């Protein structure tokens, strides 16, 4: 029997706010352990939480971007369970009336435009962090750092809309792009800024009822999510094909060893006792707040990609690559307004992105060295064929290392572009004399031969001739020859 996988994701997005969700402690990463704590995030008696407006605002903006419905009134709840890294013995989250409901994330999967529906997005707080076990002399100890306890999180839950791990990978990539685009989170899975748990079940292909699902936790990279899911789908398929039954369980995926391990079975599943948080008032988001959040919402990445395709005539692939990061899209537009749009796209996607990758630079670090205007000056010369391609690439290389405009760089490196008919005509005549075959072909009507002849002149000039001038001179000489014969 053929089986179909049904997958739903639960993602946690750590917000990049300055302070924690319910107190004023810094939410920074990497501070001295247990230094960013106070009575509220340590859960000391009598401490009163207060919701962080910037975190709620981030949740609203994400909800608006996803087309979710934003509730005017939502409530916080206590999710009760015991864990050593959670000093209050409950987590403040949202349960029955979450801030954002519904919505969908547009995602490109294998070149196809899809949209994956969401159940909800709500605000909550993170737990602390345990380190265990560590060896101290002859003892093995566990340690807890509460700096992370109370850091703002958004929880985003999808409907069971995915049928394959590759769709989940594309979804997480798109979600990471979106949270970075909105400036609400670093979105780095390796740093725990974006985390993902997955629910997966199998059912006979074409049937409606859902099978028993398992949950995979600890998926801390996009590749890990896809591999973990593929492993679990394969495991369930084998069990079902042998006539067995899937048992509800929570699994942990070990990315290093690429294996799944059972963390807890149904019998030991948590029974969270949710109840409304009595220390926090109903969270009210009025029309003015919503309108203001809507006004500050940037043009969204998928809208911008569509506009790049229509306004600049870019292929969908280019539009997708250039909108992977908001500052890359900004950089591109600054160039495309000044110079041929496709030429700018080609240079950004190949040359600029290659340098970024090789050097490990961010686009901000790149723009500091090469602001759009500097690149545009070079690209204008390429577009006008005033600079041969290889020489343009050479100038680009110098640009990365040194200050100065295109002309200055050429001078500094002692390269002079041969661009006058006087200096190029002898080269053109020599090439025509050396290539009687191609010349005959050209005169016989095969105009594509011109490209070959241009290449020969370029070679003779040591790559320093302006191709536009070479092309004009060749045409002139060849027309002269045509009239002559
Ligand atoms: Zn605190």
Automatic annotation (TrEMBL):
What this protein catalyses is:
L-aspartyl-tRNA(Asn) + L-glutamine + ATP + H2O = L-asparaginyl-tRNA(Asn) + L-glutamate + ADP + phosphate + 2 H(+); L-glutamyl-tRNA(Gln) + L-glutamine + ATP + H2O = L-glutaminyl-tRNA(Gln) + L-glutamate + ADP + phosphate + H(+)
- Signal peptide residue numbers: none
Q: MF terms per GO, please?
A: asparaginyl-tRNA synthase (glutamine-hydrolyzing) activity; ATP binding; glutaminyl-tRNA synthase (glutamine-hydrolyzing) activity; transferase activity
Asn/Gln amidotransferase domain residues are 330-478
Q: Which SUPFAM superfamilies match?
A: GatB/YqeY motif, Glutamine synthetase/guanido kinase
Q: Name one Pfam family in it.
A: GatB_Yqey
Q: Name one GO biological process term.
A: translation
* InterPro entries linked: Asn/Gln-tRNA_amidoTrfase_suB/E, Asn/Gln-tRNA_Trfase_suB/E_cat, Asn/Gln_amidotransferase, Asn/Gln_tRNA_amidoTrase-B-like, GatB, GatB_C_1, GatB_Yqey_C_2, Gln-tRNA_amidoTrfase_suB_CS
Report the EC code(s) recorded for this entry. Answer: 6.3.5.-
- What keywords are annotated for this sequence in UniProt? ATP-binding, Ligase, Nucleotide-binding, Protein biosynthesis, Transferase
What the record says about family reads:
Belongs to the GatB/GatE family. GatB subfamily.
What the protein does comes down to: Allows the formation of correctly charged Asn-tRNA(Asn) or Gln-tRNA(Gln) through the transamidation of misacylated Asp-tRNA(Asn) or Glu-tRNA(Gln) in organisms which lack either or both of asparaginyl-tRNA or glutaminyl-tRNA synthetases. The reaction takes place in the presence of glutamine and ATP through an activated phospho-Asp-tRNA(Asn) or phospho-Glu-tRNA(Gln).
User: Assembly and partners?
Assistant: Heterotrimer of A, B and C subunits.
Q: Which NCBIfam families match?
A: gatB (TIGR00133), PRK05477.1-2 (NF004012), PRK05477.1-4 (NF004014)
> Can you name this protein?
Aspartyl/glutamyl-tRNA(Asn/Gln) amidotransferase subunit B
Give the species: Eiseniibacteriota bacterium
